[in-house]
Amino acid sequence: MRTRSNSGVRLDYYQRVVHKLILDHQQPVTGLFPASPDNDHAWIRDNLYCILAVWGLSMAFKKIADQDEDRAKTYELEQSCVKLMRGLLMAMMQQKQKVEKFKSTQNPLDSLHAKYSSATGRTVVKDDEWGHLQIDAISLYLLILAQMTASGLQIVFVLDEVAFIQNLVFYIESAYCTPDYGIWERGDKTNHGLPELNASSIGMAKAALEAMNELDLFGARGGPSSVIHVLADEAQKCQAVLQSMLPRESNSKELDSGILSIISYPAFAVDDPQLIASTREAIIAKLQGKYGCKRFLRDGHKTPREDPNRLYYEPWELRMFEKIECEWPLFFCYLILDYCFQGDKKNVVDYMGRLEQIMLRKDDGIKLVPELYAVPADKADLEQQKPGSQERIPLGRCPFIWAQSLYILGKLLQEGFLAVGELDPLNRRLCSEKKPDVVVQIVILAEDADIRDKLLEHELHVQTIAEVAPVEVQPARVLSHLYTYLGRNKKLGLSGRKSRDVGILSTSKLYSLNDRIFAFTPQNFDYEEYYMSRDPALLASTFTANVAFLGMSWRHMLGRPTITLLATQYLLDHGKIPMALITTMKKLKSGYINGTRVTLGNLGDFLNTSAITDLSFLGSQEDGYPDKLNPQVQSYLEQHLLKSFSNKVSVLSHRGGAPARGLRRRMSVRGAIKKTRSINVDLANFASHKRQHLLKSFSNKVSVLSPRGGARGLRRRMSVRGAIKKTRSINVDSTKSLCCRTAAPARGLRRRMSVRGAIKKTRSINVDSETLGMEGEYVGPQLERKPSWLDAPRADPDDARKPINRGTSTTNLGVAPNPTIKVTEDSKDKSPTPPGEKGLINKNLPPVRTRTTSESQASLYAAQELDELLAMLRETESLDEQGDILQHLVDTHGLDLNTGMTENGKIVSVKDLLKALYEKACSQKLWGLVRHTAGMLGKRVEDLAKAVTDLLVRQKQITVGMPPNNEHTITAPLPENELRHLIHLAYGDDESTAMLTQELLVHLAMFIRTEPRLFLEMLRLRVGLIIQVMATELSRTLSCDGEEASEHLLNLSPFEMKNLLYHILSGKEFAINSGRGNFSIVSNKSNRYGKKSQIILDGQSLQGNIDDAPISEPDRQGQWLRRRRLDGALNRVPRDFYSRVWAVLESCQGLVIQGKILQPNLTQEMTSGELKFALAVETVLNSIPQPEYRQLVVEALMVLTLVVEHKVVNSLGGLMQVEELVHTANQIFLDDQMKCNGDATLCCAKPAPDTTTLLCGGAAGVCQHLYDSAPSGSYGTMTYLARATARLLQPDRPVECTVT
After folding, report:
1. Residue-wise pLDDT tens digits, 1058-1089
2. 1105: which DSSP letter?
3. Structure letter (DSSP) for residue 1297
4. Which GO terms describe its molecular function (predicted)?
């Protein structure tokens, strides 16, 4: 008998344990493990964890295999692993049609089953009888397959299986936006079968995608055909969403011990060491007990109060399970492995001791890990009163093989039989280690020699496309198409990759195909896709963001990233390369840009250092010619070789001078686009003492064209001019703006009024001071009711007396904005006038908002002859007029109208003319016209669906459309076409604002990816409201009326639009510089106000800055009112607001806000950190129409939270009327104002009986001076709210308090 070393003897012991507890139960035919002797169902997840101990033991034996017997044991153990992995593979391959279908539908009923028969490998329950969609289980299979293959096991045998595995990669790659049933198979914790986005599923998918990338499934015996390909961007999306969710597991589970599997072994999915530590600490603090960890808070599974006769729970039942949730020893096993991988021996010993204390010993001495420990039914009440005080009893399966397997792995690691690297041959454990800075390689190519020479003038030496041969440069859409061939298999009926999205990580590699090398330009630089790529400043900004993104996200890839940029004719501005691009390119030469290391060079210089991927899957493997290019691919590449983006000759090009008759026609259609708009900025109390100075700077010169055609010409002018303007719904009501204008003849006024605004009438941006006005300075009485954008337009008999104001236009042919009325303020008015506001009041009438304003106008439109309109179109040089005419033609005849023109032998339709106009407007940077024509052509942002998904998966809801009546909420990802349809449905005919909404969604998604802090404590993004805030802030900053502000907003370049949005979201001050008719939004750091309290977030004070001449605010009057209105409009709340409101609900019978009750039973259904609870609170708060009043209600709730947290009273009592607190605080404030003769005595602070009405018009009956008070200080809102709370809770005791 041979002698055996101590280690050999110990391993023999573990081999007996593994054989007895695990391998004895493995099915000899399929290799699967049944759940128990009585249940032959084999779960994918449980089977995979079961086999890990077998795999670990095989590697331990391999290290000491000095005898034939040991080598035999090693081989037997390894083949047991292979048998199980192939058994699961065969079971899933029998459902190959589901994999194919799920790639398109993402429907839970089309998902692979989560469990199979261990005897046959076939399904055991129907599609709708179980929560089968468990992305973490499929991801875990791919991860373990990758690790085992890397360790030397061969599990996949043929290329058909490789194709199936490749399609499993496609199956999980959208995990970041696919709700599933999760690791516990129940979805929402009420177990009603509602799938959720689960952090544990996303993390496991991310790990699997990274592990499978570039993996040869045939191991050392493989070749190019057996390699799995993963687009790195898909894993990165999972990473971003995962980081935004942790430590939360899902909407209904604020924390889950299952997350241990992704922050440590086996997934190692999180790269941030701090996030890993904080998540682990949260689990230990909230879920760990003496017998293990709870799965999640209020988990009713196997508790004594669970009804065993039904699977689901009623929402109100969940509170019964609090503090008596079962504890699972399984999670001690995860923690032991976690500390083993960290090398923390002290904690390994600690947790191993805890685990072995609660393990059960069999008769033969083997220790078993039970499934869970539950509180006995008779001790549940005692346990709830004092958690951790009662002894628990083991329930469920024993041994629980999932946990037993991990325990054996932990023992093998602790005793030194395994090294951590052997369990993780792919080195995933190192992903959180600090890595050297990434160097981003940048190649700039010129489309032709002309562009190259222009760059050379700026000392930028670049090559042309022709000069970089043999490297071929293609746009990203070509790479996207090539990847659709990946994973195709006719025999299995698999069609390959469905998604057409390729991100910056994928296009930053080089690709080899036989003897060819390809470089691809980034997807967001595909010039043909969308107008935002025509803005050089935005391109430069996007480029620097891409470089920074690559610097942060380039992981797990050999070689450096290489960005290939193509300088084309599209970039030229009046024949010159824009300075924004030149400046950015010159920065690259320094070696750093925004903190990221870069190197600028030629493609040939970077071939040896770049990441290169082999596109070998494009061969004809199924036809037996793997080295021969697929004929379809060959044909596609020949057809799509990159062509020059040369400008096409437009049918709209001017052909000779226009006679007087053409001039008359131009007059008749002018303004058609403008009438489509409906942005309504109502600045009723807006103090415009800057008006006279600003008007001179901002009003573009109007080209006054006298009519020459008698009555007939006048009728035509009246009939068509303004067709585009009438489509807009941006309504700016400035009935009380203070400025005066010069008079104009009545006849000209009538003519201009009658024909203006056809495009403008489609607009729907509504900024009304009654809900969003930013003024706050005027405290006198209301002069008259302010018109609302919802009001029907009324004919004014005094039209003839109204002077014409000078407006802005996108071209030299100015379109005059709405006329104004001069009103002299009555000197006998008893109310005081604010300083600097005496004199004339300028009243801008609301523009007409409907497309058809009257029957007479409709008949005039109809009377206009088609041939004359087309003749006008050919003769006019003004793009505005071309837009007006085309808008009218689309309205009356549709996009497919045959114009009778031909170009290159083809008939030209109105749509063709619109395309030509769009191209011209893009080249001339007329952004208002660009947005409108893009909307008419049905264009959409290429990344629209991705942008919306990026926002949604980070737990932000989105609404589009203008409040209060047209808002549509988006709560789940939608396809591109559905999104575009929904957005255009929300805005009706307002193409300009619909396109602006798409634009803003892309910017918001970019900000949430790069600066998520901007969105802290914002649950719902109301895009329509954000547009209104932007328009109003422009109006205030420029001291212009709302119509001009709306024009300025819609004519901002995409880059300036992004800048303005950033300043609105961040609360930074901004100023406006004007030059050559263009605006630029710049940060104004000098006068930024600091944060005043923890209750209200940073606001901003705005400055107008025209031609670098700053005009500062005379004082800070209105600052806090504006700040509250902005925060209310953006739905911002203080940190931890919702969880603190939860505590308030615990102390009362409900909170009443705006007639709606937040019921205390919400605390029975949801925990304080649940996202579902936050959404319930937000829904009630959003019923308050006035944003500043909403913010005061939020402050009142914060005062109540302080009362509860400091235990001022034992209970808040019955129903708390939160609004009553606000109004009581307002009354105390007014009483104080009368005592100290404060500012409010000029309006609301009057002795009885004069207090029946508020003279300042404050929202919801609260004085504007209270809205304009800082939160802190003796006269702060928090002080008054605290006094009101004290008066409400203890009416008999006088209270004096100050919040500092």
Report:
1. 999 988 888 777 777 765 446 677 766 533 33
2. E
3. -
4. calmodulin binding
